[in-house]
Design a protein that fits this description.
Two copies of one chain form a homodimer. Chain A contains eight helices and 14 strands. With 270 residues, chain A is an alpha/beta fold. Chain A has two domains: 3-55 and 70-80 and 191-264, Rossmann fold (3-Layer(aba) Sandwich); 84-185, HAD superfamily/HAD-like (Rossmann fold, 3-Layer(aba) Sandwich). In chain A, the strands form four sheets. In chain A, strands 5-4-1-12-13-14 form a six-stranded parallel beta sheet. In chain A, a hairpin with a 2-residue loop joins strand 9 and strand 10 (162-165). The longest helix of chain A is centred in the first third of the chain and has 12 residues, at 81-92. Chains A and B meet through helix 4, strand 10 and helix 5 of A and helix 4, strand 10 and helix 5 of B. Chains A, B: Keywords: Cytoplasm, Hydrolase, Magnesium, Metal-binding, Nucleus. Chains A, B: Its main location: cytoplasm. Chains A, B: Phosphatase that hydrolyzes imidodiphosphate, 3-phosphohistidine and 6-phospholysine. Has broad substrate specificity and can also hydrolyze inorganic diphosphate, but with lower efficiency. Chains A, B: It is found in: Cytoplasm; Nucleus.
Chain lengths: 270, 270
């Protein structure tokens, strides 16, 4: 029995690269065995939450897409950076200039965007045109105290047709151009993981994070005292198992195998 | 008399922001007094070289543009990153994937670009689409030893219609996405300044660099033992005079004033 599974009461699941690979005309494809794996977690009595840096859609659209792939998932089970950023802006009186995917825009419908005093970037994909990046740069450099909020800081992710450069790269571009440091909402920020764990009503050391991003999923969770297991799906590369800074608590071929191990260890929450 | 002018035998001039501001339908506008200032340097007997990170055009096109603004300048007087990168690729057997401005492409006509084993980025401006940046990322991440060559690493520059984010930001984006460090050809690299000084046949401490970029022009030149003077034109901002790392040897309102000071100090090379 793998020691990472001992005493686990709650499971945090990354979505892209663990449940499905995004991209393509169908909007992606479920990773074999993952639909059943989610169902088996539910049946086991383990607490479950989805912890994603997805910022190409509202949480509602995102959940509907996963439901079309037959995943058992509901909106209130998802911790996502869009809603977290919205909350932060409301608390701090921030009015964003948005450089995000068109499909994420409705998440911020109710937020005042006049005379922006911050820039929010998400995984804008095709919206990362030179013109749009330059516009965001000019908003920032024109502020007395530039505030850049980044929805995650991933380096890249995998779509069905290949690897895609992620929001973290554009965050670094704007940080450098403006000589500032962004505030990250989403993994690997500690607040983000802790809000997901708190939602489940467990302690960090009772939860395990399962993800395909060695730095943001594994390293991020571990810094909160959450165990973390790397799947060999999604953007996984063999060199991730020799990462100079991060060592996962376990390595599995895919989510299905992680659930096999969890259930074999008799960790069911009942 | 300003001490920075003492014993100067050679002048290195940055171009964009010192001679002219680029941009707009006319391709930019000369900065008042700069055409005459260049002529006065020539008449003084001081050695002169143009040291630019311009990478939106071939050296030849760039020089023709400046000549249309009445600047006295010839191709062989210009140290530019395109030709320097070409030389480096020839010496090291590098075959580039190019993410550069369309107008720079002819500079690399004679270079083998099949099966790329490196990526070269310049100030690609509108060519910095998400698709093109993602393509460059995929070339790099697919290489066993990714080599990224950046034509300069400027944060931003000023065009006639405002500030523009520069190649350095995209260099940082690709560095982060691929977890690599780029090789910079152009200012502030030491090789680049030294080749310009050597072309003039003077020692570093006999030359003065005049530029509008506190890090790349001023800091870069000073690290080679070249004096450096910041102009208050181009992308200059008052905060540049309180830069935490870099203190220029002198500050002038524009190139014309720098030349006034140089000539008043009787430094003429004859």
């Amino acid at each position: 029995m793998a020691s990472w599974a001992r005493g686990v009461r709650a499971v945090l699941l990354d979505v892209s690269g663990v449940l499905y690979d995004s991209g393509g005309p169908e909007g992606g494809a479920a990773i074999p065995g993952s639909v059943e794996a989610v169902n088996r977690i539910r049946q086991s009595g383990l607490k479950l939450r989805f912890c994603t840096n997805e910022s190409q859609a509202t949480r509602s659209q995102f959940v509907h897409k996963l439901q079309r792939f037959d995943f058992s998932i509901s909106e209130e089970e998802v911790t996502a950076p869009g809603p977290a950023a919205k909350k932060m802006m409301q608390e701090r009186g921030l009015r964003p200039h948005l450089l995000v995917h068109d499909d994420l825009l409705p998440e911020f419908d109710s937020i005042d965007k006049s005379e922006p005093n911050c820039v929010v970037i998400g995984d804008a994909a095709e919206n990362f045109s030179y013109q749009n990046v330059n516009k965001a740069f000019n908003v920032l450099i024109g502020l007395e105290k530039p505030v850049l909020i980044s929805l995650g800081k991933g380096r890249y992710y995998k779509e069905t047709d290949g690897l895609k450069i992620d929001v973290g790269a554009y965050m670094k571009a704007l940080e450098y151009a403006c000589d500032i440091t962004a505030e990250v909402v989403g993994k690997p920020s500690q607040n983000f993981f802790m809000s997901a764990v708190n939602e489940m009503g467990v302690k960090p050391d009772e939860a395990v994070m399962i993800g395909d991003d060695v730095v943001n999923d594994i390293g991020g969770a571990q810094r909160c005292g959450i165990r973390a297991v790397l799947v060999r799906t999604g953007k996984y590369r063999p060199s991730d198992e020799n990462h100079p800074q991060v060592k996962a608590d376990g390595y599995v071929d895919n989510l299905a195998q992680a659930v096999d191990i969890l259930l074999a260890s008799g960790v069911a929450g009942h």
